[in-house]
From TrEMBL:
Family the entry assigns: Belongs to the GHMP kinase family. GalK subfamily.
Protein name per Swiss-Prot or TrEMBL: Galactokinase
GO BP field: galactose metabolic process
Organism the protein comes from: Jaapia argillacea MUCL 33604
Keyword Transmembrane helix set for record: no
One Pfam short name: GHMP_kinases_C
Limits of the GHMP kinase C-terminal domain: 476-549
PANTHER family in the cross-refs: GALACTOKINASE-RELATED (PTHR10457:SF7), MEVALONATE KINASE/GALACTOKINASE (PTHR10457)
UniProt keywords, alphabetically: ATP-binding, Carbohydrate metabolism, Galactose metabolism, Kinase, Nucleotide-binding, Transferase
Gene Ontology terms, MF aspect: ATP binding; galactokinase activity
Domain GHMP kinase N-terminal: 203-272
GO cellular component terms, A-Z: cytosol
Transmembrane segments: none
Amino acid sequence: MAASLPIPIYTSLDEVYSSLGTATNHAVRWNDLAEEFENRFGRKPAFIARAPGRVNLIGEHIDYALFGVFPAAVERDILIACAPRSASSYASYTPASNEPSMEQERGRVADPEPLHLPGFVVAENLRHEKYPRKTFAPMRGMSTSKLLDEPTEEDVRAEEWMLDIDKGRLAWESYVKAGYYGVLNRFFPPTSLVTTTNPHPIPVDMLVTGTVPAGSGLSSSAAMVVASTLAFLAVNGKLQGISKGELVEMAMENEQRVGVNSGGMDQAASVISTTNSALHITFFPKLAAEPIPLPGSVSSSAASSHAVFIIANSLVVSDKVVHSKTRYNLRVVETLVSARILALRLGISVGKNEKVTLREVLGRWLGAKEVKGGQEEVDVEKLRDGLERIGEEVEKLRPEGKGDEEELGVTLGEMIQMSGLSEEEFNELYLSWVNVEATHFQLYKRSKHVFSEALRVLQFRDVCLRSATSSITTQSTLEELGALMNESQESCSKLFECSCPELDELTRLAREAGAYGSRLTGAGWGGCTVSLVAESDVDSFISKIKKAYAPYHNLEGEALHEVIFATKPSSGACVYKFE
Ligand code: NG1
């Protein structure tokens, strides 16, 4: 239901945030951005696209196994001011930095800078010293200079749009380009002839700013891709008729172009969230999002306990793209292969070419019928019951003859043999589209994490729903939620191995400082933790963590607030239209 709503288009800022001037002073930020856009491009922006980061409260690394997750959008966000470029606007254009005036697009774009080229993008960032200005043009599988001339019919019948995203290097503009791809492919088919009825994408100027810290597990990458997709939709007049669900799908596909085979949680949370609620997002058999009020966010009596979520950055930067071979993408492959092997061991049939997920295996095990385009829906009760029982079956993946203390992984050869596929079939199905590296693949531990974490998500949801029907959030409700968060951290650390010493330390310190529960949030291996803390204890909690966590010792004031802060569920992505 929430996914079928249209993308909100606002003309006033108080429609965007529930309360202005909270963590950062939003009104000042938005004005500064619009003014700076005018300084740099000589005219006002036409739109500002906004996409928030998210904090995942529980349900880590299970979205790509197609199990439901439980994130909430945060107030921190990415903003992209943008406007179509007209002939008169390039005259006043003044680059903000001393960067070379043109990204060298592998020598395909000729000097002087062809600002008028179809779909040509000038992307600037407010922090231009760190994120230099970039310019690029989409190409229909042929040299850009040809686009300038009269293209022949053959020239413009290309297979794919090309934007040259470098997957081996983390570059800020890659996320802008990733957002552009979806819009190009959906609205400007690369294979068709350019005619007046099938026009070129519009040249655009954009200025980006953001308050979501990069590489911190708050999903700055998804926020960038969602905001960029929205900005290109808005400038090209294609916003009407796009639902939130469609935007999520576009953003998911777009982000995969940066080189990470991500699930869909971040994009869904960034797009579909509403204030005061978390989202229970499910991906199977289709994308659906259910807003769930969080305890303490309903009006309650004086006797109730209020609690808030506090985000703390471990200050270990986790670069998902650079380490994807041994971390994120490896987990995706391990999780998928474990699904096939578990299915075989449970006597469930799996097609030779089928990349079955753990969620689908559970559905089949529970007797869900295969229907056209997927599997029939399984209700939450049945799913919870199945997750409670399948834990024992996962033991069938435990390598024989190996004790608790021993290595529980299997080699590539062993894994192929267990999969029932030939080496060639296995490589084609599981390794041809991704680059991974491991001596041992941890099928048992990964699937044990996925099923237990999926169950914790449903339990967390149940506790929140129960508490929403009562006017009082009791101590025991918060303790139940906290316990689930702590179990999740343990599982992420020991079974999924996506924590790191600093995250383990920070979550332990949070519990010692009085949190009901604390866990890593997002992909892990660095980034942030989220802790559930009584509202009355927020200040003392933060000062205890500051004292105890060495990387915070020298931080004061705004610098401290940048790394540890309480957060409220925020609204999802939108477009602000200047009138
Ligand atoms: P972050 O923390 O944004 O890197 C990643 C994935 C999610 C999910 C989590 C782990 C992307 C864009 N996001 O989140 O889909 O799998 O890890 O739960 O890759």
